[in-house]
Structure prediction request, 59 residues.
Amino acid sequence: MNDTSNWPTDKLTALRLGRRLVAEVLATRTDRRAFVDITPRQTSRDSKACPAPFRCNPH
Prediction:
C-alpha cells in the first residue's frame, strides 16, 4: 500500500490483523455498486516466517 491511500484506518487495521475485509469500491457506472472481499490466508512461506498467523513480533 502506498502513502497516497485513502483507505480508512479501521479497514487498514483489519488487513494488518489478518481479518476478513469487505469494502465498497468505485463501480464502473453510477447506477451500480461494487465490492471487494479480501480474506487473508497464510501460506507455507508465512508459516516459516511467523508461526502464529499474522501475529509476528520481530522483537
In short: Strands lie at 21-25, 34-38. The first helix runs from residue 9 to 16. The longest strand covers residues 21-25. The two ends are 23 Å apart (CA to CA).
